[in-house]
Write a structure and sequence with these properties.
Order of helices and strands: HEHEHEHEHEEEHH
Radius of gyration: 17 Å
Number of helices: 7
Strand content: 5-15%
CATH topology: Rossmann fold
Number of strands: 7
Strand order of the largest sheet: 2-1-3-4-5
Largest sheet: 5 strands, parallel
CATH architecture: 3-Layer(aba) Sandwich
Length: 211
């Protein structure tokens, strides 16, 4: 799956920037739409960083309206965004076009000096607010250069633009990109020899392919 693509290098560079610019302990926050809070990425990041013994940037999920009596790690509300500043990072996950209310919150946090990262669909407003953004996609050679194609799992949609050996088989692209970011953020040796082999092994585990 990695042959002829930049999926591995894109997610790795994004995760490394996330690590590099989060310099305050507990300074990594995740945020998203009210109806699609990024539970998935928060859980995977927390698991991977914990396994790697990296406790200073383990993520906090910022929620729009935590219910009364929620456990501490699920009760972090919007007040947390008012306490942000330099050395902290806000990672926004928005698969659909973000609402104005979400964009306003992100803009406020950016003005306080917090670094903004985003995983999204290429929405222009979210991208403009982000210091670094990631749009899950495969880059495949088209004979003249590189052609971008989003990673989707929709077997009813024609996939002629992507060589068959590059087609994602069992993992939806937005979800896979979050897995890869989590793995890269926790790997001190990412970018070193052998990283691509470990990344490929991770993809095979996620997609259920035989080793």
């Amino acid at each position: 799956m990695l042959t002829g693509t930049e999926l591995g290098s894109r997610t790795t560079e994004f995760a490394h920037s996330l690590r590099r610019f989060t310099t305050r302990t507990g300074g990594l926050m995740l945020f998203g739409p009210a109806d699609d809070e990024p539970w998935h990425l928060t859980a995977h990041l927390d698991d991977e960083l914990h396994r790697a013994g990296i406790d200073d940037i383990r993520p906090a999920l910022v929620r729009w309206s935590p219910p009364p009596g929620a456990p501490p790690h699920l009760s972090i509300g919007l007040d947390r965004l008012r306490d942000t500043g330099r050395g902290q990072s806000l990672l926004v996950v928005a698969e659909e076009d973000p609402a104005d209310t979400l964009l306003e919150r992100i803009s406020d946090v950016r003005r306080r000096g917090t670094t903004i990262f985003s995983i999204g669909n290429g929405d222009a407003e979210l991208t403009s607010l982000s210091h670094e953004s990631l749009v899950p996609e495969l880059l495949v050679p088209d004979g003249f250069g590189w052609t971008s194609r989003r990673i989707e799992l929709d077997h009813d949609e024609p996939q002629a633009a992507v060589p068959t050996d590059l087609e994602p088989r069992t993992a939806e692209g937005f979800e896979m990109a979050q897995h890869l970011v989590s793995l890269a953020a926790a790997d001190e040796e990412a970018g070193q020899p052998g990283w691509r082999l470990r990344l490929r092994a991770a993809i095979e585990r996620l997609s259920g392919e035989p080793g």
